[in-house]
Specification:
This protein is of the alpha+beta class. The chain contains 2 helices and 3 strands; from the N terminus they run αβαββ. It has one domain.
């Protein structure tokens, strides 16, 4: 009986960890928004956004670029 409970707990923990990692719930908040780049709306991809940020502000301080929001802004994160 104890062996079955231990197995069930192990499987539950494994599934929870898999869920958390696949949905990026624990995504690091170390990166902070620092600049915007390009036109609004930004029609490119996240890669295009990151390249815009690197070209305009340098890398570092910019470590990523993401197209976000309903108006499609290119946000640079430091």
């Amino acid at each position: 009986m104890a062996k079955n409970i231990n197995s069930a707990v192990s499987i539950t923990v494994f599934l929870f960890v898999l869920l958390v990692t696949s949905t990026e719930i624990l995504k690091s908040e170390a990166q902070t928004f620092c600049f915007e780049c390009g036109p609004v709306p930004f029609l490119g991809t996240n890669t295009d956004c990151f390249n815009c940020c690197k070209t305009k502000y340098g890398s570092p301080p910019v470590v990523s670029g993401v197209v976000e929001g309903s108006e499609k802004h290119c946000h640079c994160y430091c």
